Amino acid sequence: MPTVPSYLILVVGPTAVGKTNLCLKLAKKFQTEILSCDSRQFYREMNRGTAKPSAEELAQAPHHFINNLSINDPYDVRMYEEEALGLLEQLFQKNRVVVMTGGTGLFADVVVNGMDAIPEVAPEIREEIIQEYQSKGLSWLQGAVEEVDPEFFSQVDRGNPQRLMRALEIWRGTGLKFSSFRTKKKVQRPFEVIKIGLDRPREELYERIDNRMEQMLAEGLFEEAEGLFEKRGLNALQTLGYTEIFDFLERKYDKEELIRLLKRNSRRYAKRQLTWFRRDPLIRWFHPSEEREIFNFIQDQIALNPPKNATQL
Predict the structure, then answer these.
(1) CA of 197: how far to CAs of 82, 280, 286, 287, 294, in Å?
(2) What are φ and ψ of residue 281, in 5° steps?
(3) Closest by alpha carbon to 114, among 162, 82, 151, 91?
(4) Model pTM greater than 0.85?
(5) Cα 75 from Cα 238, distance rounded (Å)
(6) How far from the centroid of its chain's Cα atoms is residue 120's Cα?
(7) CB atoms within 10 A of CB 246
């Protein structure tokens, strides 16, 4: 029996660049659904600081992996890979095209390329690192990872202590760099991937990031983080926007410095996102306003690159 070719349109780019707007238009054009691969948007309790689509935007197309978890739920990238691939298998039974988007490079990468086999390490090593982090702070943790694995450090979200501790754990437990486990060959997926990258001139992007942070604060980010303060040790809350407010609530700096750090760290995060995505030569980059060019590129890719394991109808 002939198999209908299936295509995953992956839309990536830095925070505030305009991914949501484009994906809604793609979902409408192809009459399909959207998967989020943004790990900050999974959690129901985190709304103001994660740039989730609004209720009106969510109503325009079916969305998946948004508000699907509680911050108390254990979750990792391997679980996401399994769930996302299972969902895609279902969606491709009724849709030729599915859209996936987000700014978390690792979560996008495992769906497209698979997860490297990272060895388990003795739990006492992790406990030791946790204790060191709690006593010495984030700056120490960042310096330790940069020293042993500069390649991984250049790509990771440096404000995420869980990922930094994982890299240090692998180094101490195996003597090998975490980045050395991220080099295996691409797995064969039963769908083709069309990769779209969105970017803007730096000044334009940074202005949008600053404006978005001001909007988040106006809409209640500070109050939301304040309400989550007692749970600040949870893995899900070790993320941009929340950790800065937690530090403010612990009287590490004043309100003016808090706002400066929120904007600065958001801009730095965007820069790291771009560094991650620009490693991939298969991503075709556009300004978000180039919608016609994006649509034409996707149509050309569908026409010229049918999956090798499928027969055209």
Answers:
(1) 24, 10, 6, 8, 10
(2) -70, -10
(3) 82
(4) no
(5) 14
(6) 24
(7) 18
- Residues of the chain with confidence (pLDDT) below 50: 1-2, 309-313
Residue intervals of the chain classified under CATH 3.40.50.300 are: 7-116+187-221+280-304
Cα distances (angstroms) measured from residue 150 to each of 107, 142, 163, 176, 268: 21, 10, 14, 13, 17
Residue 183 one-letter amino acid = T
CATH for the stretch 123-181: 1.10.20.140
What is the C-alpha separation between 133 and 295, in angstroms, rounded? 47
Backbone angles phi, psi at 10, to 5 degrees: -100, 120
Non-local CB neighbours of 96 within 8 Å, separated by 6+ positions: 4, 5, 6, 7, 30
Q: DSSP letter string over 19-85?
A: HHHHHHHHHHHHT--EEE--GGGSBTT--TTTTPPPHHHHTTS-EESSS-B-TTS---HHHHHHHHH
Which of 88, 22, 17 has the alpha carbon at shortest distance from 57? 22
The predicted-structure confidence for 36-55, as pLDDT tens digits, reads as follows: 999 999 999 999 999 999 99
Phi and psi at 115, nearest 5°, equal -105, 135
Q: Classify strands 192-198 and 7-12 as parallel, antiparallel or unpaired.
A: parallel
All CATH 1.10.20.140 domain ranges of the chain, comma separated, are 123-181
Distance CA 156, CA 163 (A): 8
Q: Which residue has the tokens 């009106």?
A: 56
Looking at domain 7-116+187-221+280-304, its CATH architecture is: 3-Layer(aba) Sandwich (3.40)
